[in-house]
Amino acid sequence: MKRILILNGPNLNLLGRREPEVYGSQTFEAYFETLPALFPELDLAYFQSNHEGAILDKLHEVGFSYDGIVLNAGAYTHTSVAIADAISGITTPVIEVHISNVHAREAFRHHSFISPKAAGIIVGFGLKGYELALRSFL
Ligand code: DQA
Fold first, then answer.
1. pTM for the predicted model, two decimal places
2. What is the mean pLDDT of each run of 10 residues along the chain (138 residues)?
3. What are 68's strand-pairing partners?
4. Catalytic residue among 23, 66, 76, 130
């Protein structure tokens, strides 16, 4: 069974309550519970942190043994050279996901330090983007 980590960054613990017109009204925990039935062939894990260092530690921890990482780094996408360097340093492929269409939003969201290091990028499909990313590992 392929082992896949979904890794969410800052403020994504507030999904369901945070700007529902942008990010929807479902919590990530409730959404995550629906995934094993959709992907019985994948062994799924989930981790969220608001702390850049904790995200780095998790990438280092799983990044040489897991088969894939689905990463929504939230606002760190647009700021973090350290997360980009971590993705370069690990061997597990990383798919970058954004719930909203960042290219239809403020200019500061148009640049991603992660995109050049990602195996693929899925943007603007709501929570369904995580499923699209998971499908790429089947
Ligand atoms: C986001 C987009 C980012 O610009 C923002 O900072 C987030 C969420 C998304 O999933 O649409 O926190 O990554």
1. 0.97
2. 98 93 92 98 98 98 98 98 98 98 98 98 98 98
3. 4
4. 23
